[in-house]
Amino acid sequence: MSWIGGKKALRELIVSSFPLYYERYIEVFGGGGWVLFHKNPGNDFEVYNDFNGLLTNLYCCVRDKPNELIDALYFVLNSRKDFDRVKDALARDSPESDVIKAAYFYQLIRYSYASGLTSFGSQPHDMWVNFPLIEQAHRRLSKVVIENKDFEKLIGQYDRPVSFFYLDPPYYETEKYYKNIGEDGFQEKDHIRLRDTLMKIQGKFLLSYNDCDFIRNLYDDPNIQIKSYSRINNIKQRYDNGAQFPEILVANYDMSERKKSTTQINLFEMKNGIKKEEDNFYEDD
Length: 285
Prior knowledge:
- By secondary structure, the protein is an alpha/beta fold.
- The protein folds into 2 domains: 11-52 and 148-271, Rossmann fold (3-Layer(aba) Sandwich); 61-139, no CATH class.
- Helix content is 38%, strand content 14%.
- The protein has helices at 11-16, 34-38, 53-64, 66-73, 80-91, 98-111, 131-140, 151-158, 188-198, 213-218, 257-271; strands at 24-27, 45-49, 145-147, 163-167, 204-210, 225-232, 244-251.
- A 7-stranded mixed β-sheet has the order 3-2-1-4-5-7-6, with helices on both faces.
- Strand 4, helix 9 and strand 5 (204-210) form a beta-alpha-beta unit.
- The longest helix is centred in the last third of the chain and has 15 residues, at 257-271.
- The relative contact order is 0.15.
């Protein structure tokens, strides 16, 4: 599902940077859930969290009431009038049921321009093609705990030595874009509060951010590892072919331990006459 700040382009890289061992996986700023849906569910205890109550209500309905949600979406219209109607209903906190609110919110996501939820996209889209996706998401979320908490309270609740937190907060100085999706905005003090919270946890964390001096200085600590990456900048790409967007991953563990483990296994297998190919990821240390 398209979402502001979604990690579709980086999901493979992010998952490959996970620690080798953890028992609890907590996605603190869940958003569109690209990383959660991409990772192997395994046997770990999984938590999806987001501060946007409309978004978490949508995921709860996908998990618990998928057929009712699909029924509510069956005859929706891809029209500006219908888009404005459901947007206004959500803005005034309509007393509709959780399923109807989830259907309204899903309409806004699918029919808005760039999934910004504010303006009608004026693009053809058949809502019915999403129904199999909702059913697949329902199965994937069947054992996932869904929370709607402030990040500090959530981390305090689930922190254990065996916990692993993946965090994708609003990027620094891009916070204004998140006000369009029903959030109050992530301010500089919240970036600092997030750093202070993470530096005290028992478990491990992996944090994705835009590459800037403010964030690098925040996490300038001998126990913290920072790696830089770049991806195609979809906005600038329109007028600057090949434009890149610099990003960083920040962690309190060795982000290459999974890759090193795979390399060691491959070397062992090659000694025994077995050759195995690896995926390649490009990074700038």
